[in-house]
Amino acid sequence: MVAIIRARIVGLEPLLKQLGRMDPKQNTRITQKSLREIALRIQKDAAENQIVHGRGRGKHASPPLADRLSSRNGGAGIVGSIRVNMGPGPRRAAVGSDKVYAGVHEFGIPPFPRRAYLAPALEEVSPMIEDIVVEQWKREAGL
After folding, report:
1. Is the distance from CB of 71 to CB of 79 less than 8 angstroms?
2. Which domain holds residue 68?
3. Are 68 and 115 in contact, with CB atoms under 8 Å apart?
4. What is the pLDDT of residues 54-111, one digit of tens each?
5. CA–CA separation, 105 vs 124, rounded Å?
6. CB 113 within 8 A of CB 126
7. Position 38 confidence tier, pLDDT thresholds 50, 70, 90
8. Can you tell me whether residue 97 is helix, strand or coil?
9. Is residue 14, in this structure, part of any structural domain at all?
10. Domain for residue 20, yes or no?
11. Greatest C-alpha distance within the chain
12. Hey, which bits of the chain come out as E strands?
């Protein structure tokens, strides 16, 4: 899954004026810090809110949910494997799992139904992206 995020900033003339005076390396650092914060929020939302916890273990386990990914192993499995990777390059961040079955759940591959956890996390965090970027720029600009 690829997400392209664009933020439009309106009414922030003092901030834009200060940004124009910044070194391009500083702008890259601001972008990198913003992306990291966004990625960490997606990671947290996916692990804590998009995956249902406490479905039991062994003979006491509840059956899998039809439309939501569930965790019956605490922090093991997909929950414990969701990571943030920055790069390559200054304007890239990835959130995902290295578990081979993670994509099966995210996208659904017959006979397994789709039980997405990253896409809903991105949808949850998306409304905050502009504010995260603006706040990071303000911190760097000293505003």
Report:
1. yes
2. 34-141
3. yes
4. 666 666 667 766 677 777 665 568 888 999 998 777 678 889 998 888 888 899 888 8
5. 18
6. no
7. very high
8. coil
9. no
10. no
11. 64
12. 52-53, 70-71, 83-86, 93-96
Q: CA-CA distance, 76 to 103, in Å (whole number)?
A: 16
Instruction: Return all residues near 23 (Cβ < 8 A) that are at least 6 apart.
Output: none
Residue 25 lies inside a defined structural domain of this protein:
no
Distance, in Å, from the CA atom of 57 to the CA atom of 87, rounded to the nearest integer, reads 37
Q: CA 135 to CA 143: how far, in whole Å?
A: 9
pTM of the full structure: 0.77
Number of domains in the chain: 1
Could you tell me which residue, 113 or 64, shows the higher pLDDT?
113
Task: State the residue for tokens 């760097």.
Answer: 140
| The pair of three-digit structure tokens given for residue 7, joined into one six-digit string | 């933020």
Instruction: Report which residue type is found at 110.
Output: P
Q: Is the pLDDT of residue 41 over 90?
A: yes
Point out which residues pair with 71 in neighbouring strands: 53
Which amino acid appears at position 136 of this protein? Answer: Q
Residue 132 in any domain: the answer is yes
**What does the pLDDT read at residue 95?**
92
